[in-house]
């Protein structure tokens, strides 16, 4: 398969993006959700490290370029509809979230329909101010 063929199999949205889930290979924890364009997915394969598309900054974002919390890619999967990418990764320092936590999914819903709320249930492993100097 040529490079174009495997990239063309992905169903990119109207902005040329695909949603990406980063899952820790060793624990199966879902660490984060992000977006990739064709170049980001190509660079991820080329480097063996996660490269995403930052919608807010409108540029490629090599995970860990500022924080040092690089994601080494062990496996890349495409879902059955070919419109979501799953990265099975090894997370440097066990910190994936910009809040200094292991996972971006640290808020858990607790309670009921009328009195429920989101509670932070995972600890901060490193102060974000010390990560992003």
TrEMBL record:
Signal peptide positions on this chain: none
Record-linked Gene3D superfamilies: Phosphoribosyl-AMP cyclohydrolase
Cofactor: Zn(2+); Mg(2+)
Sites where the protein binds Mg(2+): 79, 81, 83
Keywords: Amino-acid biosynthesis, Cytoplasm, Histidine biosynthesis, Hydrolase, Magnesium, Metal-binding, Zinc
Pathway, per record: Amino-acid biosynthesis; L-histidine biosynthesis; L-histidine from 5-phospho-alpha-D-ribose 1-diphosphate: step 3/9; Amino-acid biosynthesis; L-histidine biosynthesis; L-histidine from 5-phospho-alpha-D-ribose 1-diphosphate: step 2/9
NCBIfam families: PRK00051.1 (NF000768)
The protein's name in its UniProt record: Phosphoribosyl-AMP cyclohydrolase
Species classification: Bacteria, Pseudomonadati, Pseudomonadota, Betaproteobacteria, Burkholderiales
Gene: hisI
């Amino acid at each position: 398969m040529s490079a174009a063929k495997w990239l063309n199999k992905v169903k990119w949205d109207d902005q040329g993006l695909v949603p990406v889930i980063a899952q820790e290979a060793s624990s199966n924890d879902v660490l984060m959700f992000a977006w990739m364009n064709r170049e980001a997915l190509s660079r991820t394969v080329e480097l063996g490290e996660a490269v995403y598309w930052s919608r807010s900054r409108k540029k490629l974002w090599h995970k860990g370029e500022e924080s040092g919390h690089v994601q080494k890619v062990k496996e890349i999967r495409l879902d059955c509809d070919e419109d979501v990418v799953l990265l099975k990764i090894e997370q440097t320092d066990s910190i994936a979230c910009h809040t200094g936590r292991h996972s971006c999914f640290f808020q858990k819903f607790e309670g009921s329909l009328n009195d429920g709320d989101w509670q932070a249930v995972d600890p901060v492993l490193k102060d974000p101010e010390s990560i992003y100097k």
